[in-house]
Prior knowledge:
Elements: E1 6-8, H1 13-21, E2 26-28, H2 34-44, E3 47-50, H3 53-61, E4 66-68, H4 74-85, E5 105-108, H5 110-115, H6 120-125, E6 129-132, E7 138-140, H7 143-168
Parallel strand pairs: 1-2, 1-3, 3-4
Antiparallel strand pairs: 5-6, 6-7
Helix pairs in contact: 4-7
The protein binds zinc ion.
Amino acid sequence: MTRSRFLADAMLGRTARWLRILGYDTIYGGGLEDDELLSICVSQSRILLTSDEQLYSRAVRDKVEAVLVRGGSEAEKVAWIAFNLGLKLEINPESSLCPVCNSIIRRIDMDEARVRGVPEKVLGWSKDFWVCSGCGKVYWVGSHYRRMKLFLREVSRIMEDLHSSSRQLSQSSLPSFSTRESDHSPHSSQ
Length: 190
Ligand SMILES: [Zn+2]
């Protein structure tokens, strides 16, 4: 099964990082004009993610698949996208993409991790390392990983709310968000 691929508009840079961590190929459209965003979506078969209603309307008119992203906090935005597209909220380092540059990451051994500048104290307690094939950033499972898990738990809770409110509402209404406060950012290991 091919996974959905995305193009996130200028307002959704942090959301793009989360989708990459979840293993979804997501390019960031910051600095691009609306025309360029739409043509990239067509030429690269990407789903447009935007919180701009005008751009969303244009995408619909041009028959470009798009999601109008709702939500105030980062968790709400990720939940909204996952809810609408049925995305899996799992972090699997073997399929995660680099949150910084969207490239494939590959597993490396301790020797290579040492050469690439991982601190000795980290080498003392972690055996699993990955390096980005694009920007060269090295990742390992540390405290940032636990924070990411907490963030995704929050996203799951919001998704449950969205599912239950969509069941309660009539089909013409959109589910709404609760006012739960949450806004965590993806953390890398450096
Ligand atoms: Zn990278």
